[in-house]
Specification:
- By secondary structure, the protein is mostly helical.
- The protein has 2 domains: about 5-75; about 75-280, Orthogonal Bundle (MetI-like fold).
- The protein is about 70% helix and about 5% strand.
- It has 13 helices and 4 strands.
- The chain has helices at about 5-35, 40, 55-60, 75-105, 115-125, 130-140, 150-175, 175-185, 190-200, 200-220, 220-225, 235, 250-280, and strands at about 65, 70-75, 240-245, 245.
- A two-stranded antiparallel sheet has the order 1-2. It has a two-stranded antiparallel ribbon with strand order 3-4.
- A hairpin with a 2-residue loop joins strand 3 (about 240-245) and strand 4.
- Helix 1 (about 5-35) crosses helix 13 and helix 5 (about 115-125) packs across helix 7.
- It is globular.
- Residues about 275-285 have low confidence and may be disordered.
Amino acid sequence: MDHTSPAEKILRGALLTLVVLFFIFPIFWIFLMSFQTNETILRIPPSLAFEPTLSNYTALISGRLETQSGTLDIQFMRNLMNSVVLSASAVALALVLGVPAAYAFARFKFRLGENIAFTLLSFRFAPPLLVLLPLSLYFQEIGLADTYFGLVWVYQLIALPMILWIVRGYFEDVSPDIESAYRIAGHSWWRTFTRIAVPLAGPGIAAAGLLAFIFCWNNFVFALILASAAKQPVTVGSLAFVTASGIQYGQIAAAIVLSITPTLLLALYAQRWLVEGLSLGAVKG
């Protein structure tokens, strides 16, 4: 029975509203900026009253940015597609490699197993600048410089350790007795892995994949050094809006809105899938 007084409920609701507004307001303001010109954005004091324009989005989609010094060709939509290709490919490869590895670390105890797992995790902690110089030289030697495959390979430093350690924890929560019973019924190890372990760890796999996708999407340094303009993701391509004639705040705001839309939609979809998976099939040991 709830014994909370009406005053406490009102105070709790007011505090919750303030917290939500604190985190939502910057996103809301950027959304409004995407429909304004530079002159409107930079006026003092700022105002919520303005005449909206779609010129920022038109410039991004058309690839032609009007500045005070003339027309500038940009490749934002190509950069956006590069982000989708690189992030999705990197996460797909990391799932193929990381999920079986996570299952092996969770189920089998072997010599140096913990050391190997921690070494893989340490790749996630290492600063990108630590590996960029040797990687750039190595890629030039083997022909992987400025290639999608090379970037997807490097993105494994971001995605693979995260997927390995998160999914490993979910596999450890799945009772081994369920798998043993399935194996006793005459099924192979691979069938047990794909039909029992992976479905029960599905929420963890989805959460790890989503987090890895977001971290790959937001990466800046790897693509800045290892890729040319034709293969750079949207995080690097957004530098085009800092021109000699000034910073194009409206286009930057519109680029932010367009660039966060795919990850936002993916997060909303994955959240629904996670809730369904946890309520229908998750079993804790």
